[in-house]
Amino acid sequence: MTVSLQGSLMVDIAGKWLTAEDRQLLRQPEVAGLIIFARNIDNPRQVRELCASIRAIRPDLILAVDQEGGRVQRLRQGFVRLPAMRALADNDNAEYLAEQCGWLMATEVLAVGLDLSFAPVLDLDHQRSAVVGSRAFEGDPLLATRLAGAFIRGMNAAGMAACGKHFPGHGWAEADSHVAIPTDERSLEQLRQSDLVPFTRLSGQLAAVMPAHVIYPQVDNQPAGFSRRWLQDILRGELGFDGVIFSDDLSMAGAHVVGDAASRIEAALSAGCDMGLVCNDRAAAELALSAAQRMKVKPSPRIARMRGQGFARTDYRQQPRWLEALGALKEAQLVD
Question: Residue 66 annotated as binding?
Fold first, then answer.
């Protein structure tokens, strides 16, 4: 008797509207999500129409974006320019501001028909990683945990599930996993005392986690996103995490250590990822899809938990909560 593996793909598209080729790809049952990038975005109305056209084909797809704030913010024209998370910590009422920021971000993302932003970043700012830097809330693990927890409360209040990244922490490794294969030489005990703290303390509030394309050689010789040790033994076993595990983009250089796109999706799903992201490379996405079909994967039932809960509210700018959140961030000079 063959037991099919649970898992699915998240893919992307090239333009602002669906092509016939896009539609064909999105009809494949192994595809369970789509992420949009800056190239797919004009303004709020266009994004709403794009999302509606996607849902007309596959109403069950999870639609995502990276809308962290600071330099990682895909939705710009017609949206509030959010601060980098590191800027929140310098305020006396930082937790309140973090909660307002999380609510405001999630409200705008949900209002255009998307389900989630891959946020918050739980990496610590060790003043070592340029790719993390101000995306992190803090370098102190307890303060980072408090601020990220407040941000998650805001997201949840707006109707959005939270995805913590990049497990077990990308803030120490200096190389950028978009273009290299970073390593973090610290021991598991050192990681437990620092970078793992936010993931451990917030595991009950996180609906999803995204592992890092970083190798921690004292723990395993595979990057965390391809490691059963990290995903099964530590994340699911020790931390008791029962949410969705999204791979980071399998087209990134940090993922190439395991081979081509077919090898990467097989390694990610076999290690325990519920969904593998294959972005910015349609040929790679098609190769990964073929591999997923050969593996006879079935989407994990956990994925449905990532659906947004607030699509109908397009009048959010008239809500008292919106005026309060925007006013607080303006008063702190965190937004214009």
Answer: yes
Catalytic residues: 178, 248
Name the phi and psi angles at 298, rounded to 5.
Answer: -125, 135
Taking only the tens of pLDDT, the chain with its 336 residues reads 344 688 999 999 999 999 999 999 999 999 999 999 999 999 999 999 999 999 999 999 999 999 998 899 899 999 999 999 999 999 999 999 999 999 999 999 999 999 999 999 999 999 888 888 899 999 999 999 999 999 999 999 999 999 999 999 999 988 765 667 889 999 999 999 999 999 999 999 999 999 998 999 999 999 999 999 999 999 999 999 999 999 988 886 555 666 788 999 999 999 999 999 999 999 999 999 999 999 999 999 999 999 998 755 678 888 899 999 999 999 999 998
60 is in an annotated binding site: no
Q: Is 166 annotated as a binding residue?
A: yes
Nearest to 160 by CA among 26, 50, 65, 51: 65
Tell me whether residue 249 is annotated as binding.
no
3-state secondary structure string across 43-108:
CHHHHHHHHHHHHHHCCCCEEEECEEECCEECCCCCCCCCCCHHHHHHCCCHHHHHHHHHHHHHHH
Give buried/exposed letters for 43-82 (b at 16+ CB in 10 A, else e).
ebebbbebbeebeeebeebbbbbbbbbbebbbbeeebbeb
8-332: which CATH topology?
TIM Barrel (3.20.20)
Where are the domains positioned within the chain? 8-332
